[in-house]
Amino acid sequence: MKAFSYERASDAAGAAAQLAGTEGAKFIAGGTNLLDLMKLGIETPAHLIDLRGAGLDEITETEEGGLRIGALVSNTDLAADERVRRDYGVLTRALVAGASGQLRNKASTGGNLLQRTRCPYFYDTAMPCNKRAPGAGCAALSEGAFSRQLGVIGTSDACIATHPSDMAVGMRVLDAVVETVNAAGESREIPLEDLHQLPGDTPEIETALQQGELITAVRLPPPVGGRHGYHKVRDRASYAFALVSVALIRQPDGSGRVALGGVAPKPWRSAEADAELPNGATAVMAKLLGGARPTEENAFKITLAERTLAAMLAEE
Fold first, then answer.
1. Are the C-beta atoms of residues 172 and 128 closer than 8 Å to each other?
2. Judging by beta carbons within 10 Å of its beta carbon (0-12, 13-18, 19+), is residue 252 exposed, middle or buried?
3. Cβ–Cβ under 8 Å, residues 166 and 94
4. What is the per-residue pLDDT across 56-77, written as a single tens digit (0 to 9) for each?
Protein backbone atom coordinates (compact mmCIF):
# COMPACT_ATOMS: atom_id res chain seq x y z
CA MET A 1 0.00 0.00 0.00
CA LYS A 2 1.34 3.43 -0.91
CA ALA A 3 1.74 6.12 1.73
CA PHE A 4 -1.13 8.60 2.16
CA SER A 5 -2.15 11.42 4.45
CA TYR A 6 -5.33 11.39 6.49
CA GLU A 7 -7.81 13.74 8.13
CA ARG A 8 -11.23 13.54 9.74
CA ALA A 9 -14.12 15.65 8.44
CA SER A 10 -16.64 17.21 10.81
CA ASP A 11 -19.39 17.99 8.29
CA ALA A 12 -20.42 16.84 4.82
CA ALA A 13 -20.13 20.11 2.91
CA GLY A 14 -16.72 20.78 4.41
CA ALA A 15 -15.58 17.30 3.42
CA ALA A 16 -16.71 17.85 -0.17
CA ALA A 17 -14.90 21.19 -0.32
CA GLN A 18 -11.76 19.67 1.17
CA LEU A 19 -11.73 16.86 -1.37
CA ALA A 20 -12.19 19.25 -4.29
CA GLY A 21 -9.19 21.25 -3.12
CA THR A 22 -6.86 18.32 -2.48
CA GLU A 23 -5.22 16.52 -5.37
CA GLY A 24 -5.58 12.76 -5.23
CA ALA A 25 -8.00 12.81 -2.27
CA LYS A 26 -10.74 10.27 -1.64
CA PHE A 27 -13.48 9.86 0.92
CA ILE A 28 -13.39 6.91 3.27
CA ALA A 29 -16.24 5.64 5.45
CA GLY A 30 -16.30 1.99 6.51
CA GLY A 31 -13.38 1.25 4.20
CA THR A 32 -14.49 -2.35 3.58
CA ASN A 33 -13.85 -2.07 -0.16
CA LEU A 34 -11.47 0.88 -0.50
CA LEU A 35 -8.78 -0.53 1.78
CA ASP A 36 -8.73 -3.82 -0.14
CA LEU A 37 -8.30 -1.88 -3.38
CA MET A 38 -5.50 0.20 -1.85
CA LYS A 39 -3.64 -2.92 -0.73
CA LEU A 40 -3.77 -4.23 -4.30
CA GLY A 41 -2.63 -0.92 -5.78
CA ILE A 42 -5.87 -0.47 -7.71
CA GLU A 43 -6.76 2.64 -5.69
CA THR A 44 -3.82 4.89 -4.79
CA PRO A 45 -5.22 7.97 -3.02
CA ALA A 46 -2.71 10.52 -1.80
CA HIS A 47 -5.06 11.72 0.94
CA LEU A 48 -8.04 10.19 2.76
CA ILE A 49 -10.91 12.22 4.21
CA ASP A 50 -12.61 10.18 6.91
CA LEU A 51 -16.36 10.86 7.01
CA ARG A 52 -17.20 9.08 10.25
CA GLY A 53 -17.44 12.33 12.19
CA ALA A 54 -19.58 14.11 9.61
CA GLY A 55 -22.89 13.50 11.37
CA LEU A 56 -24.45 11.30 8.68
CA ASP A 57 -25.35 8.36 10.90
CA GLU A 58 -29.06 8.80 11.67
CA ILE A 59 -32.27 7.34 10.26
CA THR A 60 -35.11 9.86 10.39
CA GLU A 61 -38.70 9.93 9.19
CA THR A 62 -39.52 12.24 6.28
CA GLU A 63 -42.52 14.56 6.02
CA GLU A 64 -43.82 12.38 3.17
CA GLY A 65 -43.95 9.31 5.41
CA GLY A 66 -40.76 7.64 4.28
CA LEU A 67 -37.28 7.35 5.79
CA ARG A 68 -34.08 9.31 5.31
CA ILE A 69 -31.01 7.13 5.89
CA GLY A 70 -27.75 8.91 6.61
CA ALA A 71 -24.88 7.83 4.38
CA LEU A 72 -22.85 6.68 7.38
CA VAL A 73 -25.55 4.40 8.84
CA SER A 74 -24.00 0.95 9.03
CA ASN A 75 -25.54 -1.95 7.17
CA THR A 76 -26.13 -3.69 10.50
CA ASP A 77 -28.00 -0.75 12.03
CA LEU A 78 -30.06 -0.25 8.88
CA ALA A 79 -31.10 -3.89 8.68
CA ALA A 80 -32.06 -3.89 12.37
CA ASP A 81 -34.04 -0.64 12.38
CA GLU A 82 -37.58 -1.42 13.50
CA ARG A 83 -39.15 0.83 10.83
CA VAL A 84 -37.10 -0.75 8.06
CA ARG A 85 -37.91 -4.27 9.23
CA ARG A 86 -41.63 -3.44 9.46
CA ASP A 87 -42.17 -1.38 6.28
CA TYR A 88 -39.24 -2.18 3.98
CA GLY A 89 -38.70 -5.88 4.55
CA VAL A 90 -37.08 -6.37 1.15
CA LEU A 91 -34.28 -4.02 2.22
CA THR A 92 -33.62 -5.80 5.51
CA ARG A 93 -33.51 -9.16 3.70
CA ALA A 94 -31.12 -7.81 1.08
CA LEU A 95 -28.81 -6.35 3.73
CA VAL A 96 -28.51 -9.51 5.79
CA ALA A 97 -27.81 -11.49 2.61
CA GLY A 98 -24.71 -9.41 2.00
CA ALA A 99 -21.18 -10.04 3.29
CA SER A 100 -20.56 -11.18 6.89
CA GLY A 101 -21.72 -9.79 10.23
CA GLN A 102 -18.32 -8.18 10.81
CA LEU A 103 -18.36 -6.47 7.44
CA ARG A 104 -21.94 -5.28 7.88
CA ASN A 105 -20.91 -3.67 11.17
CA LYS A 106 -18.38 -1.51 9.31
CA ALA A 107 -19.97 -1.05 5.88
CA SER A 108 -21.88 2.18 5.38
CA THR A 109 -24.98 2.94 3.35
CA GLY A 110 -23.19 5.35 1.00
CA GLY A 111 -20.13 3.15 0.65
CA ASN A 112 -22.23 0.10 -0.12
CA LEU A 113 -23.76 1.89 -3.11
CA LEU A 114 -20.32 2.93 -4.34
CA GLN A 115 -18.46 -0.36 -3.89
CA ARG A 116 -16.70 -1.45 -7.02
CA THR A 117 -17.16 -4.59 -9.09
CA ARG A 118 -15.80 -7.94 -7.95
CA CYS A 119 -14.82 -8.94 -11.50
CA PRO A 120 -11.65 -11.09 -11.04
CA TYR A 121 -9.90 -9.30 -13.90
CA PHE A 122 -10.50 -5.90 -12.29
CA TYR A 123 -8.67 -7.16 -9.18
CA ASP A 124 -5.83 -8.83 -11.11
CA THR A 125 -3.49 -5.99 -12.06
CA ALA A 126 -1.57 -8.31 -14.39
CA MET A 127 -4.64 -8.57 -16.65
CA PRO A 128 -6.13 -5.93 -18.97
CA CYS A 129 -9.24 -4.18 -17.65
CA ASN A 130 -10.94 -1.17 -19.22
CA LYS A 131 -12.55 -0.24 -15.91
CA ARG A 132 -9.22 -0.14 -14.08
CA ALA A 133 -7.09 1.12 -16.99
CA PRO A 134 -9.21 2.69 -19.77
CA GLY A 135 -8.24 1.44 -23.20
CA ALA A 136 -6.38 -1.60 -21.87
CA GLY A 137 -8.94 -4.11 -23.08
CA CYS A 138 -11.22 -6.56 -21.26
CA ALA A 139 -9.70 -9.86 -20.19
CA ALA A 140 -13.16 -11.14 -19.23
CA LEU A 141 -14.09 -11.14 -22.92
CA SER A 142 -11.02 -13.00 -24.08
CA GLU A 143 -11.18 -16.63 -25.23
CA GLY A 144 -11.27 -19.02 -22.30
CA ALA A 145 -11.91 -16.26 -19.75
CA PHE A 146 -13.67 -17.01 -16.46
CA SER A 147 -16.97 -15.17 -16.72
CA ARG A 148 -19.33 -17.25 -14.57
CA GLN A 149 -19.94 -14.38 -12.13
CA LEU A 150 -20.16 -11.61 -14.73
CA GLY A 151 -22.96 -9.73 -16.43
CA VAL A 152 -25.47 -10.87 -19.02
CA ILE A 153 -27.31 -7.60 -19.71
CA GLY A 154 -26.47 -3.90 -19.73
CA THR A 155 -22.90 -4.84 -20.60
CA SER A 156 -20.79 -3.65 -23.54
CA ASP A 157 -17.88 -4.74 -25.70
CA ALA A 158 -15.63 -2.87 -23.26
CA CYS A 159 -16.85 -4.37 -19.97
CA ILE A 160 -19.13 -7.12 -18.64
CA ALA A 161 -18.63 -6.50 -14.90
CA THR A 162 -21.56 -6.57 -12.49
CA HIS A 163 -22.41 -4.33 -9.56
CA PRO A 164 -22.00 -6.40 -6.37
CA SER A 165 -24.34 -4.73 -3.87
CA ASP A 166 -27.32 -6.60 -2.42
CA MET A 167 -28.51 -3.49 -0.60
CA ALA A 168 -28.73 -1.52 -3.84
CA VAL A 169 -31.07 -4.12 -5.36
CA GLY A 170 -33.40 -3.81 -2.37
CA MET A 171 -33.30 -0.02 -2.62
CA ARG A 172 -33.91 -0.09 -6.37
CA VAL A 173 -37.14 -2.02 -6.01
CA LEU A 174 -38.21 0.57 -3.42
CA ASP A 175 -37.50 3.54 -5.75
CA ALA A 176 -34.94 5.06 -3.38
CA VAL A 177 -33.44 8.49 -4.04
CA VAL A 178 -29.83 9.49 -3.28
CA GLU A 179 -29.08 12.88 -1.76
CA THR A 180 -25.68 14.54 -2.34
CA VAL A 181 -23.69 17.69 -1.63
CA ASN A 182 -20.88 19.14 -3.73
CA ALA A 183 -17.85 21.30 -3.02
CA ALA A 184 -19.91 24.49 -3.36
CA GLY A 185 -22.32 23.25 -0.70
CA GLU A 186 -25.06 22.63 -3.28
CA SER A 187 -27.28 19.61 -2.79
CA ARG A 188 -29.11 17.52 -5.36
CA GLU A 189 -31.20 14.37 -5.61
CA ILE A 190 -30.46 11.41 -7.88
CA PRO A 191 -32.99 8.58 -8.32
CA LEU A 192 -31.16 5.35 -7.58
CA GLU A 193 -31.97 4.07 -11.07
CA ASP A 194 -29.81 6.91 -12.45
CA LEU A 195 -26.91 6.66 -9.98
CA HIS A 196 -25.08 3.70 -11.52
CA GLN A 197 -24.03 4.06 -15.16
CA LEU A 198 -23.88 1.41 -17.87
CA PRO A 199 -20.33 0.82 -19.16
CA GLY A 200 -20.67 1.63 -22.86
CA ASP A 201 -17.27 2.81 -24.09
CA THR A 202 -16.34 4.34 -20.72
CA PRO A 203 -16.62 1.61 -18.05
CA GLU A 204 -14.34 3.61 -15.75
CA ILE A 205 -17.25 6.04 -15.21
CA GLU A 206 -19.39 4.05 -12.79
CA THR A 207 -21.79 6.61 -11.29
CA ALA A 208 -23.48 9.93 -12.03
CA LEU A 209 -21.56 11.62 -9.18
CA GLN A 210 -19.34 14.54 -10.11
CA GLN A 211 -15.80 14.98 -8.81
CA GLY A 212 -15.99 15.80 -5.11
CA GLU A 213 -19.74 15.13 -4.86
CA LEU A 214 -20.58 13.28 -1.65
CA ILE A 215 -23.58 11.05 -0.91
CA THR A 216 -25.16 12.37 2.28
CA ALA A 217 -28.27 10.20 2.55
CA VAL A 218 -30.62 7.79 0.82
CA ARG A 219 -34.33 8.56 1.01
CA LEU A 220 -36.99 5.86 0.89
CA PRO A 221 -40.51 6.80 -0.29
CA PRO A 222 -43.50 5.98 1.93
CA PRO A 223 -44.08 2.23 2.36
CA VAL A 224 -45.85 0.50 -0.53
CA GLY A 225 -47.15 -2.48 1.45
CA GLY A 226 -47.38 -5.93 -0.09
CA ARG A 227 -45.23 -8.99 0.58
CA HIS A 228 -41.50 -8.39 0.46
CA GLY A 229 -38.90 -10.98 -0.51
CA TYR A 230 -35.21 -11.16 -1.43
CA HIS A 231 -33.58 -14.34 -2.62
CA LYS A 232 -29.87 -14.59 -3.36
CA VAL A 233 -28.40 -17.53 -5.27
CA ARG A 234 -24.65 -17.97 -4.81
CA ASP A 235 -21.94 -20.59 -5.04
CA ARG A 236 -21.75 -21.13 -1.27
CA ALA A 237 -24.12 -20.48 1.59
CA SER A 238 -22.35 -17.48 3.11
CA TYR A 239 -19.96 -14.70 2.23
CA ALA A 240 -20.29 -14.91 -1.53
CA PHE A 241 -21.55 -12.47 -4.11
CA ALA A 242 -24.74 -13.22 -6.00
CA LEU A 243 -24.87 -15.26 -9.16
CA VAL A 244 -28.42 -13.97 -9.31
CA SER A 245 -30.52 -12.17 -6.72
CA VAL A 246 -34.19 -11.24 -6.92
CA ALA A 247 -35.95 -8.48 -4.95
CA LEU A 248 -39.72 -8.82 -5.04
CA ILE A 249 -42.62 -6.78 -3.72
CA ARG A 250 -45.98 -8.35 -4.51
CA GLN A 251 -49.40 -6.89 -3.83
CA PRO A 252 -52.49 -8.99 -3.01
CA ASP A 253 -53.88 -8.48 -6.55
CA GLY A 254 -50.73 -10.02 -8.08
CA SER A 255 -49.17 -6.77 -9.25
CA GLY A 256 -45.81 -5.66 -7.93
CA ARG A 257 -42.16 -4.92 -8.58
CA VAL A 258 -39.07 -7.00 -9.42
CA ALA A 259 -35.37 -6.07 -9.44
CA LEU A 260 -32.37 -8.28 -10.18
CA GLY A 261 -28.83 -8.32 -8.85
CA GLY A 262 -25.77 -10.19 -10.13
CA VAL A 263 -26.69 -9.85 -13.79
CA ALA A 264 -25.82 -6.27 -14.78
CA PRO A 265 -23.57 -3.28 -14.00
CA LYS A 266 -26.40 -1.86 -11.86
CA PRO A 267 -29.50 -3.12 -10.05
CA TRP A 268 -31.69 -4.23 -12.94
CA ARG A 269 -35.38 -3.36 -13.16
CA SER A 270 -37.92 -2.14 -15.74
CA ALA A 271 -41.49 -0.89 -15.60
CA GLU A 272 -42.40 -3.18 -18.53
CA ALA A 273 -41.24 -6.22 -16.56
CA ASP A 274 -43.10 -5.09 -13.42
CA ALA A 275 -46.31 -4.91 -15.49
CA GLU A 276 -45.92 -8.58 -16.43
CA LEU A 277 -45.74 -9.83 -12.85
CA PRO A 278 -49.38 -11.07 -12.78
CA ASN A 279 -48.48 -13.23 -15.80
CA GLY A 280 -45.67 -15.09 -14.04
CA ALA A 281 -41.89 -15.39 -14.01
CA THR A 282 -41.43 -16.28 -17.68
CA ALA A 283 -43.30 -13.18 -18.80
CA VAL A 284 -41.35 -10.96 -16.38
CA MET A 285 -37.96 -12.25 -17.47
CA ALA A 286 -38.84 -11.96 -21.16
CA LYS A 287 -39.11 -8.22 -20.56
CA LEU A 288 -36.40 -7.86 -17.94
CA LEU A 289 -33.69 -9.89 -19.68
CA GLY A 290 -34.74 -9.42 -23.30
CA GLY A 291 -31.64 -8.48 -25.29
CA ALA A 292 -29.27 -10.21 -22.87
CA ARG A 293 -25.78 -10.97 -24.21
CA PRO A 294 -24.45 -13.77 -21.98
CA THR A 295 -21.17 -15.56 -22.42
CA GLU A 296 -21.09 -19.33 -22.78
CA GLU A 297 -20.12 -19.59 -19.10
CA ASN A 298 -22.86 -17.40 -17.63
CA ALA A 299 -25.82 -18.05 -19.93
CA PHE A 300 -27.26 -20.16 -17.10
CA LYS A 301 -28.06 -16.92 -15.24
CA ILE A 302 -31.05 -16.25 -17.51
CA THR A 303 -32.70 -19.53 -16.59
CA LEU A 304 -31.58 -19.18 -12.97
CA ALA A 305 -33.22 -15.75 -12.64
CA GLU A 306 -36.52 -17.01 -14.02
CA ARG A 307 -36.56 -20.07 -11.78
CA THR A 308 -35.64 -18.02 -8.72
CA LEU A 309 -38.53 -15.64 -9.30
CA ALA A 310 -40.88 -18.55 -10.06
CA ALA A 311 -39.92 -20.17 -6.75
CA MET A 312 -40.57 -16.94 -4.86
CA LEU A 313 -43.99 -16.54 -6.49
CA ALA A 314 -44.88 -20.14 -5.66
CA GLU A 315 -44.11 -19.55 -1.98
CA GLU A 316 -46.85 -16.95 -1.62
1. no
2. exposed
3. yes
4. 999 999 999 999 999 999 999 9
